[in-house]
Write a structure and sequence with these properties.
The structure holds two protein chains of two kinds. Chain A has helices spanning about 5-15, 20-35, 35-55, 90-125, 130-145, 145-160, 165-195, 200-205, 210-245, 260-265, 270-275, 280-305. Chain A is mainly α. In chain B, helix 5 crosses helix 7 (about 175-210) and helix 6 (about 140-155) crosses helix 7. Classes of the chains: A mainly alpha, B mainly alpha.
Amino acid sequence: MSTIHAEEAGAAKAVPVRTAPHASMWRQSLRRLLKNKLAMLGFAVVAFMFAACFIGPLFSPYTDNKINMAVMNNAPSLKHWLGTDALGRDVLARVLLAGRISLTVGLASMVLSVFVGTLLGVIAGYYRGVVDQLVMRLADLLLTIPSLPLLFIFGALLSEWKVPTDYRMYIVMLMLSIVGWPGLARMVRGQMLSLREREYMQATVVLGLRDRRKLFNHLLPNLVPLIIVIATFNIGGAILSESVLSYFGLGVMAPTPTWGNMIDAANNMIDFQDHPWLWIPPGFSIFATVIAINIFGDGLRDVLDPKQKR
Amino acid sequence: MSTYITKRILYMIIILFAASFLIFCLYALTPGDFITGNIKLTPERKAELREIYGLNKPVIERYWTWMKNAFHGDFGYSLAQQKPVLTLFNQYIWNSFLLAIISTFLTWFIAVVVGVFVAYKQYSWIDTFVMLFLFAAMSIPSFFIGLFLIKILAVDWKWLPPGGMLTTGSNATGLAYVKEVIHHMTLPVIVMTLLGVGSLTRYFRSNMIDVIKQDYIRTARAKGLKERKVLFTHALRNALLPAITLVGFELPALFGGSLIIEKIFNWPGIGQLYMQSFTLRDYPLLMGFTMFIAILTVIGTLLSDILYRVADPRVRL
């Protein structure tokens, strides 16, 4: 707290009381985050991965996925930085295009599971009683069933039902959020149970505030830091889960490339031994992205939610 | 306490019932069974087999039969292997356990030693370095690191065997057998330890940091005790205690095997058995396995909660 300069404290007093402490908390956090070199490095890597995957292919001459038998299985060279695959497609361009899908699936399933988890967790923790029982028993049930077999069954169902490969990506997002929300709901509920007993919540009761105002103006803002931190780690987890599923052919499937299903090349003995450029780059992309997200998330937690440090 | 445990066990049973029904429905819902997939059979034979295995009956009835038998200790009959599911489990589970117990032991050992050391050196360059390594360990896709190490250590450098538990066609016995198994399990154990060590070391590090700040540590130092004694006798004991709650959570991992690692390293464990049966849609086995993990998870959670109270008597259950 010593980082607040005297003049800032003075300025904060001049602004209307209701907004000032709020704004300065976020600004303080941002300033501390910017000072954390490791976290900023993580952020830079994530930003780079996103930029490379979404903008990079625009500068590549090989993004049309055209089959070119003249350059089959070429090793990395100046012309094809990461070599070419069995159909003569440029591996670098494919890794970047795959990154678009993997990152999108990671982000989207995070948004979905955070939304559902927070909503249900807040409702359960705030209203308690029957609603709480219902939501938490459902969460318990889903947490009891091991998630990997569950995801495998879903994946097999998709294949049997002949879901078009274009749609699989969206259903994979849904699948990941189905197994993702219960843990989150449980955590949010726990936090809610502790927050609603605080003095400032008793004050809102005394003031006779309506439920909606209590929830949105007083409880949610205090949950947001925790949710941001969990959400960040969640993206990394979702990217990992997607890659496992796609690697085993139960997630997003070819011809839509993802980092996971590109590593599938390693299941072929010849590609595994002699063409490592087919499956090592996507693996390292997953690794680099997830580690960067985790480091950034840890920095965020230090700043936003120091009590949760584990 | 005892009423609490009774209540918990009752709740556990209800949850397991619900889980078993959900699991059964999901597997029953998956179209295509073991018999459809077999192209060698004539349509008449297929219908006959379905009749024998009861696959043509409604889902509820099948679930009922399955549950009834499960209560008699009969978890069904593997269609692909023509053996009772429990016999198969018994056959494969110990290979999984061998892998899991050694890597769990290594993980905990490394986590405690490194965690204590890094906590003592908090904010030094070595702390940052170790933390970076731990983050890396937590972020590796397990199947990829497995493939990568096989490629480097087994295929390119030929230091270690790429997979399996024994060399193909080997009939070694006694000490030679043990040596061969150890040789084969080195790679999977390395990978499993690597994957587990990240979060656990961070856990011990932060526990230790909390403990070091306590007044009784200051007192111990003020008494003039040696730093080694302060750290390993006074601090470590208190930092380790909360970790016994984690023991319960290890339960599913210890006996449930690892689907991914066993598949990648072709280790004849229960996870590998599951992956094989999955392609064949050998549903009694798949259900048995999923249920088995669910039971372990529930028991593990209960165990953790009870141990939590043992560790900290102030906690009211």
